[in-house]
């Protein structure tokens, strides 16, 4: 490899990493002190990450940035221990801080071995970054990887976001477990051939993973069977795929900006206004829904799922109780609003019950019910001394319970009170009751039953339920 080509590759890398580092370190508020700037590379020991290690070492030295190399031991190959030893030896020779993690890949899961290994690998890398105070993680993805990604997404029928391929720099909280951790790909404009020539010119040692030649894996099948044919018939196709990915990324950015505007116009609290949603074209409403899912960190729904969701939301009667399930959440329609809630299993009212006595504590946690019961002094409430003598039961709602909130108000069914308090139907099954025998003392989301209110001069106590999310679901005590 001619010297000028090696220098060009290094210069291109330096420009790319410089732009990424400026985005991470210089735009941070507050920006980290120079001695606290740290980056890491995901170092497998293969060709690509070995070249990245070499280039990152030179960049970090010149720019006084702490450099770490993190290796993930998957345990899927008989050579995994040797690869770990190789990585430890190479980083020690270069004076680079090194750490490794062993992970277990569940090969029986529905996502396949490739997906499971990827998920566990990135989770471990994120944990290592947090442990070592690293805010920028570099991976060795290159131009050929980008071309494979675009082609895979095209074969899967992906939309604009998928065809955008990989970004030069982005966050990936679902993978890395930290929304503040940035992932950079400074080799994204370099071809694998250029990296091979660079490694040869600089005598960079690396390991070879035989699984990279196994055509049972989708990427390997493309790399060894499809890409050579494309290269023969369409020389330079990888660069053109990368250019198309950049065009798709620009289009996706416009879609995000439109969705941001629509989200601001349609949002009421944490819900979407259905009348404004109804005025949008299907394409625009789907774009808004995808943005909403991404904003909430949910897996992206399919086009068919979105079509079914729109059909149910817009086609049902105004008073219909709409519930559309998703692997990560549930979508409801409530009083002209579209609401997204976490996916939760329905509790079993016949089985779940906690019998307890109050000992004067300010609060009591009930993990099985997903929250805590608070005991607070109040102008209207039950006598504290009396409450200490009672055997209390915390349980889920069943039919037949009624509550009288005040002396001048009638006794009504819990359903009536929930409707009057505008508590959505899907929340009612997750709001527990406190009773003494068959006498209701308190209903989360409604309040206390006045039948037990004290008229004496002692300390009066009112109950309040608070879910584990920290959002109180029961505030009324009247």
Can you summarize this structure?
By secondary structure, the protein is of the alpha+beta class.
Topology at a glance:
Elements (H helix, E strand, L loop, with lengths): L2 H24 L11 E5 L4 H17 L2 E8 L6 H15 L2 E6 L9 H21 L3 E3 L4 H13 L4 H4 L5 E3 L1 H4 L5 E3 L7 H11 L15 H16 L3 H30 E2 L2 E3 H5 L3 H14 L7 H13 L6 E4 L3 E6 L2 E6 L10 E4 L6 E4 L4 E13 H5 L3 E4 L6 E2 L8 E2 H7 L4 H4 L4 E4 L2 E5 L3 E2 L11 E8 L11
Parallel strand pairs: 1-2, 1-4, 2-3, 4-6
Antiparallel strand pairs: 5-6, 7-8, 8-11, 9-10, 10-11, 12-15, 13-14, 14-21, 15-18, 16-17, 18-19, 19-20
Helix pairs in contact: 1-8, 2-8, 5-10, 10-12, 12-13
The termini sit apart by 82 Å
Specify the structural class.
Answer: alpha+beta
Integer average pLDDT: 88
As for the CATH topology of the largest domain, it is Rossmann fold
Helix-residue proportion? 40-55%
Strand content of the residues, in percent?
Answer: 15-25%
Q: What is the CATH architecture term of the largest domain?
A: 3-Layer(aba) Sandwich
Give the count of structural domains: 3
Shape by Cα distribution: elongated
